[in-house]
Design goal:
With 142 residues, the chain is an alpha+beta fold. The chain contains six helices and four strands, in the order βααβαααβαβ. It is globular.
């Protein structure tokens, strides 16, 4: 029997649209995306901003309480990775960063036309199965 994993939808935007999405997600250029967000009670979170927020919290509360701190800090300080994650966005549904498969699949289905028409550059569905997710490099293991 397969475990019931939770899922997350991510998109990649070009540089101009990613800047808009971070500064003014209500910009008319992004209206089709905004309609989808509204229908799903979803928000769009920039991966770089999420990583930077994680590091900021760790630095305030103590990095020992944040097992991915060193790996995340290295990621946001690497110019190539920073550029990549500034263009990567995660959909939170009902303020949750992972959600049931049916919600993810419906969101993914509604985003497909935006991929085809070029509003978004890439579309990904991730699951919470540890075998399918990256692990910190050995240099960051305690």
């Amino acid at each position: 029997m397969d475990a019931e994993w939770e899922y997350q939808i991510r998109i990649t935007l070009d540089e101009r649209k990613s800047l808009l999405a971070r500064q003014d997600p209500t910009d008319p250029t992004l209206a089709p995306l905004g309609h989808i967000l509204s229908r799903h009670n979803a928000s769009l979170i920039c991966q770089y901003d999420a990583f930077a927020g994680y590091c900021a919290s760790a630095e305030i509360e103590g990095v020992d309480q944040y097992p991915l701190y060193k790996w995340t800090k290295d990621t946001i300080e690497d110019p190539i990775k920073k550029n990549k994650f500034l263009k990567s966005f995660t959909f939170y549904i009902d303020d949750m960063q992972v959600y049931e498969k049916a919600k993810a699949e419906q969101l993914e289905k509604e985003l497909q036309p935006l991929l085809k028409n070029g509003l978004i550059d890439a579309l990904f569905k991730h699951d919470t199965n540890p075998a399918n997710n990256p692990h910190p490099p050995k240099k960051h293991n305690k």
